[in-house]
Amino acid sequence: MARSSKPGSSKRWLPAAVVPAVIAGGVVVGTVQAGAATDLPDKSPQEVLALAAGTDVRQLSGTVEQTSQLGLPQLPETEETDSGPSAAAMLDLLAGSHSARVYLDGHDKARLQVLDRLAERDVVRNGRDVWFYSSRQNEAVHALLPERTAKEAKESVQDKSGDDAGYTPESLASRFLEAAEPSTRVTVGEDVRVAGRDAYRLLLDPDSADTLVDSVAIAVDAETGLPLSVDVQARGQQEPAFELAYTKLSLGAPDPGVFDFTPPAGASVTEHTVPDQAAQRAERNARDDGADAQHPDGKATKTGDGWDTVVELSATSLPEGWADSPAMAQALRKVDGGRLLSTALVNVLLTDDGRVFAGSVTPERLQAAAEGR
Amino acid sequence: MSSKQADSAPAVRRRSAAGWALLGSELGVLFRRWRTWAMLAALAAVPVLIGLAVRLTSEDIEPGDGPPFLDRVTQNGLFIALTGTVVSIPLFLPLTVSVAAGDTIAGEANLGTLRYLLAAPAGRIRLLAVKYAAAVAFCIAAALTLVAAGMLVGVVLFPVGPVTLLSGDTIGVGESVLRLLLVAAYVSLSLAGLAAIGLFISTLTEVPVGAMAATAVLAVVAQILGALPQLDWLHPWLFTEHWVGFADLIRQPISWDSFGANALLQGGYIAVFCALAGSRFATKDVLA
Q: Is B233 exposed, middle or buried (0-12, 13-18, 19+ CB in 10 A)?
């Protein structure tokens, strides 16, 4: 074109400079708005705690994001060999970041979808039926909850550790709230916005020198008292060691079809029986210790209290050979008296005589506990 | 428009008409090209190969073996479309799009035909828009070819029935076809960002092979960077970040989050690189 024969005119490059500037501006404005402080009426820590404890939200659908920076080596995804909510699967849930969709309706209908890369893991509870489905293995596990458990769950509003134990912000936060003993300073921080809702930010500061936890922050929805996010800061680490937050949340009954699950044709289906005792024991374990609820079963004895609790597990309570897998071998480090699995939040000591000590405390404390026997 | 002075109304009309005519002829040239059909055929060959390989071997495929969804293929042929898409996303699709996008301007410059194109009353920016539209048309054709070939092969070689989604829920054949078309739309969108990068690189050089190679290399490099956990601060900015996010379309209920995030990301890349290409092309000395 004749008119554009004058090259070098700097105005020609204007769009190329303006477009990225506009995009960058949009990103900055978006971030500032997302972090904008909201102004809620002031509440004391006790009031916020009561608000959280009194929440009666049992119907919701939402998306949850979880990230962990525990300083653990990233587990390759192919490592999951077992089906079902095994120890390996639990460990996987604690490493890296995950996104999941949560649906709740009443006390006996829940669905959790862990959205993996090109795959999905589902836990569906509808009344007494519990289904676990893994798309990668195309496997379904079915369990029928004992009658009593189902009834108990209905009766006790406090008990939120159903099948989704430890995964909704709700159940996690209530566990932390239980741990808020005199050993913890509880304050209310600046108001925040989580998943588009105004929330109080409850801060828990451990009053102990031995624990690895620096602080725990829980966002409590100002309207309903529903915990919207939990993040745990570890000592000496900038990034939160653990973060769990709703990114999207809508209160109200989800589509009932979400809770109907029929195993797909061609999937292998395993029936799993749930003994009554196991449920009770799991419940007791969950109540006993706030710091380490990862082990699915097994007897645990604890020493110390509050944030300094050290839990001792007998070797038989853990899956056989779990410490011998290549990933674990890589993560374990030799220390005096055994091997140590060290993360930002939890230390686990495997003594040479086969005992296991775990706690959110320094390795030295674990060693002391091991020698104290 | 590139012009500084105000155009009179008839001139604008003439130019826009010329733009549409140019687009028509550009699409005609693209889809009459031997090379375009060769690339589409190569893409269609991917699901055909997968289908034949699975059909001709008698061994059962264990869940989790091979590329995702491969174990489902024997039960339901429609899964070939998904397996084919997953397999082609990292390299085949970006490669063909790089060829189509890298050729846009550099190819004309190399052949010495760019001068004549600019003699048409459409204007440089409109020519660039037409070239980009043709590249996007190729992205759509590529994604559709892959998915359609997969479905066809699946129907011919395997039983077809209700499809199991990632969530374990089952949907009917009609809805499955709709979802697969959505997957094709998602993939086309993912590739549109790469096409914009290719367009910009194409305005930088007169050697089309260089532009094609540079675009393809960028696509691979972005994916390698995306696989390194040490660079996770960078990941949200990589145009390959959501490339496999189409899996969210085969969950129940559909999760639109990654579609939205992908659209935003690709939109950003399209805006930035089309602006860069426009600025570069408007100031470029066209000698050939």
A: exposed
